[in-house]
Amino acid sequence: MEDFTSLLPVSPVLTNELLSEALTEWFKEPMTFTHWEYVGGMGKGDSFLSEVIRIKIYGDSNGTSKYVQVVLKNIPKNVCRRLTYRNDEFFRNEINFYQKVIPKLLEFQSSKNVSDPFTGFTKLFLAYSDGLNDVVCLEDANVEGFGGHTSRQEGIDFEHCKVTMKTLAQYHALSFAIKDQKPELLDRISDAIFETYYDPRLWDWYKRFWKRICGIAIDAVEKEYPNSIYLEKVKQFAVPERYEDMIRAVRDKTNGVISHGDCWTNNFLYKYNVQGTGPVSAKIIDFQLVRCASPVLDVAFFIYACTDQVLREKYYDDLLKYYYEVLSGQIRQLGSDPDKVYSVETFMQEIKKYSYFGLAFSFESTPFIVLAPEDAISMDTVQGDKKLNIEDFWQIPPFKTKEGRLREVNNIVHCVDRGYI
């Protein structure tokens, strides 16, 4: 990366012409790409499906230099990694979301008089997809003062939970209002995205890894709650057939919204008040697992991936109540009746029905969340041009510490105590 007059060494599709077009579109005036500047990379273990860097892209307009700072997500160059993880599918799904879905959601929102509209996403600068050289380039929210949570290893506190729940609720409300007022529009934008994780075609890809993470969960409960109802319940739950339940969950469009699909700590950015004492807003990033399904899949995954037992014991019911208050208020401002499109009774029924989904996903996310950066898995250790099984890459061991085990076990305890599994 010594020649900063071209981005071709980073990706062969990032021609000067393409960058000039993107700059022209971004600044709404004729721009010519001149050079770029490296800002930084991502921490080890912070991105599994992309190679990610932060850069500034400069352009010239009649002698005036301007730049946009972006996060550039590149499909992995490692062929084995790219084939094993089906990176092209995740890139295509996210690009479809940014090009075909979010513009329609925002267009609908702009036609309404909403006092606090959904703005919790990062804007697309450019995108390209051909299955080999895919690129997604997004505005860098750091410029606006947004940043990641200090540590993915720690559960987030109540104030972070509230701003995250608010952002999710504002996002989900758009789908409910569109479904009520323009159902054909929701059908059309739903058709632009597809399931990237829970589908019969993917079982062979996932089953060995599912067996591994189920074993890790059972091992953690055996060590912390031997001979308990929790061990009995997790053994009943952590079986291959659970994947079929996950498939049914993501296919249930009864109360389907355009959901995020990957609500773990790394995928939320926060902006803090000037005193630096607490978050005032959140943005959602990484829409590679976006799908049309119940909003509870996002809510449950967020709760079990991002909170700990202490917070849940104190605030779980308050968080659900707050999420629904924001959701219903936003639906009402968008011109629909929340009691008709998604009542609080229906929401709570789906919490009971689908919270297991968040637990199952946490079997995967928790081992990665608690890994120290130095222990994070390097994604480029396996070479070659053949597709492997993801379990060949993600050979994560049982939890090393009691603290790590309890992060997993307490999710199970919560689900059992609440009657979710």
How is this fold's topology laid out?
Blueprint: H1 16-27, E1 32-41, E2 51-61, E3 64-74, H2 79-84, H3 87-110, E4 124-128, E5 135-139, E6 146-148, H4 158-181, H5 183-190, H6 203-224, H7 229-237, H8 242-251, E7 257-259, E8 268-272, E9 279-284, E10 291-293, H9 295-306, H10 309-333, H11 338-341, H12 344-370, H13 390-393, H14 402-417
Structure description:
Helix 12 (344-370) packs antiparallel against helix 14 (402-417). By secondary structure, the protein is an alpha+beta fold. The chain is globular and about 75 Å long. It has 14 helices and 10 strands.
Key traits:
single chain, 421 residues, alpha+beta, Aminoglycoside 3'-phosphotransferase, Chain: A, domain 2, 2 domains, five-stranded antiparallel β-sheet, 10 strands
